[in-house]
Amino acid sequence: xxxxxxxxxxxxxxxxxxxxxxxxxxxxxxxxxxxxxxxxxxxxxxxxxxxxxxxxxxxxxxxxxxxxxxxxxxxxxxxxxxxxxxxxxxxxxxxxxxxxxxxxxxxxxxxxxxxxxxxxxxxxxxxxxxxxxxxxxxxxxxxxxxxxxxxxxxxxxxxxxxxxxxxxxxxxxxxxxxxxxxxxxxxxxxxxxxxxxxxxxxxxxxxxxxxxxxxxxxxxxxxxxxxxxxxxxxxxxxxxxxxxxxxxxxxxxxxxxxxxxxxxxxxxxxxxxxxxxxxxxxxxxxxxxxxxxxxxxxxxxxxxxxxxxxxxxxxxxx
Length: 318
Fold this sequence. Notes:
Elements: E1 2-10, E2 15-23, E3 28-30, E4 33-35, H1 75-78, E5 86-87, H2 95-100, E6 125-128, H3 141-156, E7 163-165, E8 171-173, H4 174-177, E9 181-186, E10 189-194, H5 202-215, H6 218-223, E11 225-227, E12 238-241, E13 247-256, E14 262-268, E15 277-279, E16 290-291, E17 298-301, E18 304-307, E19 311-314
Antiparallel strand pairs: 1-2, 3-4, 5-13, 6-15, 7-8, 9-10, 11-19, 12-13, 12-19, 13-14, 14-15, 14-16, 17-18
Helix pairs in contact: 3-5
């Protein structure tokens, strides 16, 4: 676009035309939209002296804030905090610190299913945990939560805390599994028997998880959890609706402001079995954080809706 300064001076015996033309074009890329601005200068009145135009240096357009640091390789380094909020403090060896330091897939990655095909809906997530998936359609929503806890206990060598229940109520303990005990299922009856040598290797750990995933679900996970209030939310808490099928999402980060209002991030696995991924917030897709001050009765996530009363805390960590 262009702005022109134009005037005419007409005398009875002489006609003269002086045309001064200037052009100024500015283009800013902002949020993938082009924003064009222009300045219109007034016409110079007849009889005035034209002075050279003065170049006005405009202030730079402020950079748009992004909640995502694309170079961040963990949850803590990938996600920026809302203004005025600070992360809740967790000790070095805590579960909260473990989750925050869990590796993420490269920014922009697509969610894959257990068979390496792409999930149909690629608009629900904003990041993906670089977490192993067992073969077959087993590691679904509750299983992803269980795996996160199990990996933490395994890393800390707290084998006695790995006690996940089957839907029928049977407690499948890794402390027994690592001693070579295996489970025998007959109808609704489940019993232990000696079936392998003592071993705590990663291969044994994976075989244990595969068995748990076969027989655990949101029904058993819900029974292993207790209700909590929204103001007390912390990493590792879950919103869960037990059923066949039900669904569960996990709180994977929490921050708060000076008024003690909290904001949190959520992650989920889903059906069919797929990578554990951090969710968008459908209420404002430019900001993935969920704010307690915005919640009353319901929590709306991209693929499932919960009630606030369905916020619970697994009893695994004492």
